[in-house]
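Hi Y.,

Following your request, here is the sequence exactly as I used it, all 142 residues.
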Amino acid sequence: RGLAWLQASANPDGLLGYRRPNEFPYGPNTLTAAGAVCLLRGGGRHSDPRLLNLMLPLVRRAANDAALAPDFYRSFFVAEALALAREDAASRYALDALKARLLASQVRAGAAAGSWPPEDAWGAIGGPVYATALASLSLRRF
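Below is the corresponding structure, written out as tokens. Let me know if you'd prefer a different format.
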């Protein structure tokens, strides 16, 4: 029933809403990627493959979009969805673009070397532990 509810929260373009279609309090990219992860982990037994066919190009676009503000939470779900989809060269390219942006934001010197600064929308809440954990979990998919 959870997967059915999730599918009912998607709009006709494949963007997943927070509680209902077109409800995007923080934008649609993270929710859509998280929804794709849920559908992919669900094994497809209870999901409409047409929805994934709409969602995955949107997830790839989010991975490639350097104009999007940094968001480690989004990066994690985007990397996870693309890795689970085991898609084509376009997905590999999208993962490579995401990887480059994540590595470019890593602290290179000083006491915090190797970590990530909590400079996204959730960083004030999660701090450097959150940022470093999600960046690291994202990078494990490359």
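The longest helix spans residues 123-139.

Thanks again,
Q.
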